């Protein structure tokens, strides 16, 4: 990689680092784990930068790499007896990735991250379990020892909570959001 290309890469990373971390943090409950995954994502980006075509959407490319790193994290957790399946990131990650491609403002992503972090551990874990796997609700319910309707009802309630929280967060002024 020549020095000009290296500088361009450094500029792109500097410009988008917080968005990449925000994406990872929204999908991983532990801040420590999110930081580790973010760092690993940056390493992979450096290693694969020669594959990136300048002039295309760097953030979308970086988010795809981050998504793969989150998947690897959850696969490792599952192998260690963790609760989560992580074969393919599903609806939640896809929605976040689409928002980034479409240029949704940082405030919305920050609101989502803040609201996800306010969920109870069981609710956050359920969101991750369902949206980070290709499993059907009935399979997740069976794994959790619940009936499918119960899982569906919980997801509906959690999505409503997230929607309400995001709406409240975005309706506040920027100074209100940062002070809470």
Can you walk me through this structure?
- The chain has 180 residues and is mainly alpha-helical.
- It has one domain.
- Helices cover 77% and strands 0% of the residues.
- It has nine helices and no strands.
- The protein has helices at residues 3-27, 31-48, 58-79, 91-101, 106-118, 121-131, 137-144, 148-171, 174-179.
- α7 packs across α8.
- The longest helix is centred in the first third of the chain and has 25 residues, at 3-27.
- The radius of gyration is 17 Å and the shape is globular.
First-residue to last-residue Cα separation: 44 Å
What's the overall average pLDDT, rounded? 78
DSSP strand tally:
0
Number of domains: 1
Radius of gyration: 17 Å
Notable characteristics:
single chain, 180 residues, mainly alpha, 9 helices
Describe the structure concisely for a colleague.
By secondary structure, the protein is mostly helical.
Outline the secondary-structure elements.
Elements: H1 3-27, H2 31-48, H3 58-79, H4 91-101, H5 106-118, H6 121-131, H7 137-144, H8 148-171, H9 174-179
Helix pairs in contact: 1-2, 1-3, 1-5, 2-3, 3-4, 5-8, 7-8
């Amino acid at each position: 990689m020549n020095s000009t290309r290296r500088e361009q890469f450094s500029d792109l990373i500097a410009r988008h680092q917080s968005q990449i971390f925000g994406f990872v943090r929204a999908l991983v409950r532990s801040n420590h784990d999110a930081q580790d995954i973010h760092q690993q994502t940056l390493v992979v980006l450096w290693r694969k930068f020669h594959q990136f075509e300048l002039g295309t959407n760097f953030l979308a490319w970086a988010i795809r790499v981050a998504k793969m790193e989150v998947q690897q994290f959850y696969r490792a957790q599952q192998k260690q007896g963790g609760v989560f399946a992580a074969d393919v990131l599903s609806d939640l990650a896809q929605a976040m990735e689409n928002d980034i491609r479409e240029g949704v403002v940082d405030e919305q992503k920050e609101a989502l991250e803040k609201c996800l972090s306010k969920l109870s551990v069981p609710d956050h874990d359920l969101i991750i379990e369902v949206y980070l796997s290709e499993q059907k609700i009935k399979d997740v319910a069976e794994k959790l020892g619940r009936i499918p309707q119960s899982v569906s009802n919980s997801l509906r309630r959690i999505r409503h909570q997230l929607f309400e929280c995001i709406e409240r967060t975005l309706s506040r002024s920027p100074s209100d959001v940062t002070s809470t």
